[in-house]
C-alpha cells in the first residue's frame, strides 16, 4: 500500500531547469534528467486515493497511483509495464502534456500541491528508453491492411495498436520525416527528436511501414488508397491556422503564421544536426538559416519580435526567438492576466483551471502584455512591417459570443520586424483527399465521426485533432488507441483492443 504520510513529509519539487544563459545557446531540452531519489520522493506523495480523480483528468486512463507506488518501492520494470498498458508514448506526453491529471489530483484541493505526475511519468519512460524499447511480439498476420494518413501521435498510436493485433499497417506522411507536429512543430528544447526516432524503430520492428513524401489525395488518390487497403484512418491533424485578414496591414512582409516560424526553425535544427560537412551545431545558437518553403528567411536574429497569442504555440515561438537571437520580444494576449491560483467559483476542482501558466521560455526573456488587441500592422513604407499598433481592451461574453471593446485613448505602438500569429487553429486543412472520399469538414473545421469512429465514407475512420480540433497530445493518443479498437472490430479481428474514449468524449469540465 502507499505511504499514507508521504504527502506530509515531502513538498512538491521539480528538477531544476538548465540555467537560462546556457540553454538559450543551444536547442537541447530545458530539463535535465531528475535523480532517482527525487522521483521516488515525489512518487511517495501519491495517496492512492479511494477515488483517483487523476484518472478522470487523463483521457488515457493512466494507472497513475499504481505506477507512482511502483516507483516509490523501486520496482521500475513493473512501473514501465503499468505505464505502457495505457499509453503508447509516455515519453511524449511526459514532456508535452500540460497535465490535466495534476489539476485533478486530490492533493490540489484548496490550493494544495498536486503530485508531480508528469515528471514521474517521463522518468519512468526515460528509464525504459535507456534500456531500449523492446518490440512486442506480433501475432500471426490477419491478412487485413490499414492505411494511416498522418504520422502525428494519433496516427502512430493507432498504427502500433493495429500492428500488434496482426494487421498490416502503412503510415503515409506528406513531409520528409515521420512525426507530424512532433517532428517539425515542437521545438527540440521541449522534445528532442531522438525520442521520436527511438519509437519509430520500435514500430518498424513491429511491422509498421512508413511512406514519407506522399501527399495522399495528390500523389496517391483516395481510390488507389482504398483499393490497396481494407480500412483507412485519417489522422492529419488540425493545421489550419486562425488568421486576422481584417486587420490593416496583415499582408505586409514579416507577418506570418506561428507554425511557419516553428516549422522553419525545426527544419534548420534538423538540417544542422545531420550535416556532416558542417559544425555539429546542436550545441550552438545559430544552426542554420530558418527559411520558408520559397527560400525567404523567417529568422528572429536581431529583430524585434511580436507574438500574438497566449498559449503553448506562442510560448514555443518565444523560446525559438530567444535561441535565434532576437533583439526583443513582446507576447500579446487578448485576455486579462489570469490569477496565480484556481478560482474555485469559476473552475472548481477537479476541472482544468484558468490560471497564469508560465513556461520555461518566459523566464528566458521577453515581455508579456495582457488585455490588448492589435489594431494595425504598421508599414515601413516598403511593404515591410515595422511596428504593431495595439490598444487596451475589455473582453466579455454576451449571449454566448465574445465581445471585445477598445479602451479609448489607450493605443500605442510596439516595434516589430517579425510578427507571429499564434491565435489558435480553425480545424483540419481543406485538401483534395476529403473531396475524393466524399468527406466534408463541419462548422468547426473538423471531421465528424459516427459512434464507431467511421466518417460518412464507410471504412474510412478519423481520430485525433482532425476529429476533435486542436487539442492535447493525451487526447490524440487516446483517440488513436480508441479508433484502432474500432478498426480492429471492423476488420473482424479476434478479441477487443482497449478503447479509452468514445468519439463524443469531452474533457473534465463544469457542466
TrEMBL record:
Source domain of life is Bacteria
Q: Name one GO molecular function term.
A: iron-sulfur cluster binding
User: FAD/NAD(P)-binding domain: from which residue to which, for each copy?
Assistant: 145-480
Entries under InterPro entries matching the protein = DPD_II (IPR028261), FAD/NAD-bd_sf (IPR036188), FAD/NAD-binding_dom (IPR023753), Glut_synth_ssu1 (IPR006005), Glutamate_Synthase (IPR051394), Helical_ferredxn (IPR009051)
**What are the boundaries of the signal sequence?**
none
Dihydroprymidine dehydrogenase domain: from which residue to which, for each copy?
24-131
Q: In which pathway does it act?
A: Amino-acid biosynthesis
Q: What parts of the sequence cross the membrane?
A: none
Keywords (A to Z) from UniProt: Amino-acid biosynthesis, Glutamate biosynthesis, Oxidoreductase
Q: Which GO terms describe its biological process?
A: glutamate biosynthetic process
| PANTHER family membership | GLUTAMATE SYNTHASE [NADPH] SMALL CHAIN (PTHR43100)
Q: What is this protein called?
A: Glutamate synthase (NADPH/NADH) small chain
Which species does the entry assign this protein to? Micromonospora violae
Amino acid at each position: 500500500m502507499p505511504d499514507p504520510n508521504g504527502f506530509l513529509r515531502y513538498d512538491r519539487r521539480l528538477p531544476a531547469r538548465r540555467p537560462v544563459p546556457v540553454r538559450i545557446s543551444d536547442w537541447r531540452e530545458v530539463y535535465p534528467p531528475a535523480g532517482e531519489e527525487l522521483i521516488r520522493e515525489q512518487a511517495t506523495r501519491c495517496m492512492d486515493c479511494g477515488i483517483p480523480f487523476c484518472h478522470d483528468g487523463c483521457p488515457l486512463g493512466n494507472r497513475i497511483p499504481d505506477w507512482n507506488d511502483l516507483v516509490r518501492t523501486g520496482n521500475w520494470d513493473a512501473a514501465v509495464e503499468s505505464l505502457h498498458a495505457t499509453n503508447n508514448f509516455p515519453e511524449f506526453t511526459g514532456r508535452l502534456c500540460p497535465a490535466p491529471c495534476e489539476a485533478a489530483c486530490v492533493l490540489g484541493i484548496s490550493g494544495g500541491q498536486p503530485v508531480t505526475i508528469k515528471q514521474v511519468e517521463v522518468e519512468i519512460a526515460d528509464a525504459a528508453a535507456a534500456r531500449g524499447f523492446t518490440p512486442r511480439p506480433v501475432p500471426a498476420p490477419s491478412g487485413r491492411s490499414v492505411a494511416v494518413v498522418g504520422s502525428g501521435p494519433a496516427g502512430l498510436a493507432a498504427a502500433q495498436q493495429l500492428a500488434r493485433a496482426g494487421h498490416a499497417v502503412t503510415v503515409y506522411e506528406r513531409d520528409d520525416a515521420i512525426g507530424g507536429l512532433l517532428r517539425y512543430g515542437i521545438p527540440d528544447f521541449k522534445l528532442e527528436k531522438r525520442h521520436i526516432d527511438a519509437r519509430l524503430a520500435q514500430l518498424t520492428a513491429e511491422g509498421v511501414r512508413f511512406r514519407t513524401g506522399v501527399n495522399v489525395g495528390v500523389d496517391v488518390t483516395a481510390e488507389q488508397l482504398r483499393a490497396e487497403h481494407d480500412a483507412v484512418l485519417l489522422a492529419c491533424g488540425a493545421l489550419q491556422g486562425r488568421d486576422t485578414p481584417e486587420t490593416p496591414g496583415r499582408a505586409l512582409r514579416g507577418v506570418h503564421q506561428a507554425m511557419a516560424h516553428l516549422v522553419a526553425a525545426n527544419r534548420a535544427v534538423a538540417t544542422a544536426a545531420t550535416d556532416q560537412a558542417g559544425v555539429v551545431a546542436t550545441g550552438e545558437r545559430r544552426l542554420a538559416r530558418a527559411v520558408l518553403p520559397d527560400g525567404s528567411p523567417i529568422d528572429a536574429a536581431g529583430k524585434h519580435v511580436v507574438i500574438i497569442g497566449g498559449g503553448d504555440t506562442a510560448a514555443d515561438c518565444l523560446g525559438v526567438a530567444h535561441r535565434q537571437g532576437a533583439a526583443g520580444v513582446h507576447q500579446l494576449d487578448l485576455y486579462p492576466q489570469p490569477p496565480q491560483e484556481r478560482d474555485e467559483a469559476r473552475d472548481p476542482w477537479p476541472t482544468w483551471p484558468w490560471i497564469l501558466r508560465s513556461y520555461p521560455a518566459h523566464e528566458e526573456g521577453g515581455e508579456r502584455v495582457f488585455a490588448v488587441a492589435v489594431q494595425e500592422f504598421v508599414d515601413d513604407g516598403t511593404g515591410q512591417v515595422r511596428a504593431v499598433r495595439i490598444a487596451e481592451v475589455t473582453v466579455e461574453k454576451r449571449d454566448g459570443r465574445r465581445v471585445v471593446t477598445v479602451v479609448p485613448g489607450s493605443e500605442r505602438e510596439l516595434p516589430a520586424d517579425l510578427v507571429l500569429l499564434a491565435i489558435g487553429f480553425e480545424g483540419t486543412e481543406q485538401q483534395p483527399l476529403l473531396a475524393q472520399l466524399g468527406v466534408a469538414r463541419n462548422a468547426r473545421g473538423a471531421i465528424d465521426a459516427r459512434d464507431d469512429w467511421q466518417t460518412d465514407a464507410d471504412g474510412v475512420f478519423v481520430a485525433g485533432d482532425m476529429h476533435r480540433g486542436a487539442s492535447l497530445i493525451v487526447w490524440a493518443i487516446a483517440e488513436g488507441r480508441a479508433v484502432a479498437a474500432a478498426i480492429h472490430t471492423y476488420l473482424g479481428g479476434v478479441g477487443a483492443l482497449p478503447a479509452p474514449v468514445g468519439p463524443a468524449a469531452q474533457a473534465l469540465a463544469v457542466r
